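Title: Prediction job returns without error message
Component: structure pipeline
Severity: low
Priority: P3
Assignee: unassigned

Description:
Job completed but the reporter wants confirmation the result is attached to the right record. Sequence as submitted:
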Amino acid sequence: MKYIVLLLLFWPSSVMFSQQQSTYEKPPVFNQCENTPVEQLKTCFNFTLSKFIYENFEVPQIVEDEQYKGDVSVLFEVTSKGNFEVVYIDTYYTELEDEARRVFKILPEIEPATYNGNPTFVQYSIKIKIPLVKPVEESVIKNQEQDNIEVNNESQEIDNINNQTQPYDGAAFTSQLNIPFTHSYYARFDANLNAVGTNAHTAAKPYVYSDVSKYYNIKEVNESLKKETSSWIGRKLWNENLVAVQGKDYWFSVDPIADLQVGKDTEAEFNS
């Protein structure tokens, strides 16, 4: 069961192979890939393995008779000695599982992956298409290049988000949000809204910050009420939002609310 979970967690949808160990410096190397540039070793490994499986995998007769179309999912390991070991196989037919295990048993010993110059093990997963599909080296290379493009795009998108964010400057106090309606709070700016010459519709409540900010600087008053504190807990407890993020056209803040009540039921014999 643990291998099923492992397979699901580390299986990308658009890549034929997925690495569980991503910190090694050099992938495993078949003899056919010895003269391949380092940056192409992974591509060569993928293609050589796919080619070996295609040339040696024999689709069981029952699978052909029933015209089955699907995949054989194999999670395997290349040990620190360069041997292939099957970890888990997921397929509809036990005959396909047996055949996959047979093919992986006859794979040759290869040069293991290395990390800091030392041999190490790595785990991969592969889907064997049924009916078999002949691998094409060029398509494998294109897939890897596309993966690199997608990774670069994701990194660029994260950088763009980071560049667009800015320190939160109290945008709530000039926004279209409703001001919490309490008599004690509204009493602070009622006089400003009702002053001669203003054009505020004070009968419509609750007010919104953008309307009140024309006559009463809530942000400035809020700044004056902040307590002197240098600790993170003190700042978050008295002066700042717990979480506040602001971008070019958006902002949001998060604050916890505690609701504690103590009282006595006059008709009961216990306190609550």
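Comment from assignee: result matches the submitted record. Residues 1-24 have pLDDT under 50 and may be disordered.
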